Amino acid sequence: MSGRGYRTFRGGVHPPTHKELSSSKAVTQAPVPAEVVIPLNQHIGAPNVPLVSPGDRVDVGQKIGETEAFVSAPVHSSVAGTVRAVEDVRNFTGAIVRAVVITADAEQPAFAAARMKPVGELTADEIRRLAREGGLVGMGGAAFPTHVKLTPPRDKPVDTVLLNACECEPFLTCDHRLMLERPAHIVEGLKLLVRAVGAERGIIGIEANKMDAVDGLRAAVSSEPGLDVAVLDVKYPEGSEKQLISVVTGRKVPPGMLPGEVGCLVQNVGTSVALYEMASIGKPLYERVVTVTGPGLRSPGNFLAKIGTRISMLIEAAGGWAGEPARLIMGGPMTGWAQEEPVASVVKGTSGVLVLTPELVDARDEHACVRCGKCVEACPMFLMPNYIAEAAIREDWAKAEMYGALDCFECGCCSYTCPAYIPHVSYARKAKAQLAALKKR
Ligand code: SF4
Ligand code: SF4
Question: What's residue 241's pLDDT?
Answer without folding.
Answer: 94
